[in-house]
Write a structure and sequence with these properties.
The chain is an alpha/beta fold. It folds into two domains: 124 residues, Response regulator (Rossmann fold), CATH 3.40.50; 111 residues, OB fold (Dihydrolipoamide Acetyltransferase, E2P), CATH 2.40.50. The protein contains nine helices and 15 strands. A hairpin with a 2-residue loop joins β6 and β7. It starts with 8 loop residues before the first strand and ends with a helix. The N terminus is likely disordered.
């Protein structure tokens, strides 16, 4: 799987507006997992560039002269992964119909850019077509990671290190076995990126790593001496997953 060896993702920026290209190039430079291979002002130049370079991810503007970004993708038999960028919301539905990884509305903040990149990282980590052995699954889980912006730095967090995540209004606190970081991001967007078999939302303000639970009862779970509440609307799903993980027939009863 691609990211186990931390291979960088080669990107191409396609936008007819130089300031927009500059912003994306700056964002790409701020993420260790990405490598800028080039930038083009239109789809015609991009087509020539793609014929001579192996690109894995396009940051593609939709509203461009001569050929729309969406039309450009339709001309390609096997297009790279695509994150559409545009100033117009009306193109969103069409973008997702073309299996875009994400759709970024200009002006593009670094936080929103990072959310889209993290989606690409997860696809690269889980998108292999070969049959995966149990040993590979265990090894892969240890190497999965996401990037978070903390102050002016990009911080890599391995998923296997995460104990739990707490929502703090517009921010989240990510508590790991090695450190605690706070970053501006809604908890719901992070929930979409975390593997559903390893993490579960137990409360509107908390997501936990299932294999880090030390004990639990009907109202709370305990992880490294932190007692976290189980929300009323989450109890059924939490009970099922903890029951499955613990292998105990009494686990589901304990959480009712």
């Amino acid at each position: 799987m691609n990211m186990v060896n931390h291979k960088k993702i080669k990107c191409l920026v396609i936008d007819d507006e130089p300031p927009a290209r500059d912003i994306l190039k700056k964002h790409i430079a701020g993420v260790e997992a990405l490598e800028l291979a080039g930038d083009c002002p239109n789809a015609v130049e991009a087509l020539t560039f793609l014929q001579h370079n192996a690109i894995e991810l396009l940051f593609l503007d939709i509203q461009m002269p001569h050929l729309l970004g969406t039309s450009f993708i339709r001309t390609m038999k096997n297009p790279p992964k695509v994150i559409f960028t545009t100033a117009y919301r009306k193109f969103a539905v069409e973008g997702f119909e073309l299996n875009a990884v994400d759709y970024l509305l200009k002006p593009i903040s670094f936080e929103r850019f990072l959310q889209a990149v993290n989606k690409v990282l997860q696809i690269n980590l889980t998108g292999s077509n070969h049959t995966i052995t149990s040993t590979e699954v265990a090894s892969e889980q240890e190497n999965l990671f996401l990037y978070f912006r903390v102050d002016r730095r990009m911080v890599k967090v391995f998923l296997d290190d995460i104990l739990f995540v707490e929502s703090l209004k517009d921010y989240i606190k990510i508590v790991t076995s090695k450190k605690t970081i706070v970053t501006k991001q809604p908890i719901s967007s992070l929930e979409e990126l975390l593997p559903a078999d390893s993490f579960i939302r137990i409360h509107r303000s908390y997501i936990i790593a299932v294999n880090k639970v030390d004990s639990f009862n009907a109202d709370s779970v305990e992880i490294r001496k932190s007692e976290l509440p189980i929300g009323r609307f989450y109890k059924q799903d939490v009970g099922k997953l903890l029951n499955s993980s613990s292998g105990s027939r009494h686990a589901n009863d304990a959480i009712k």
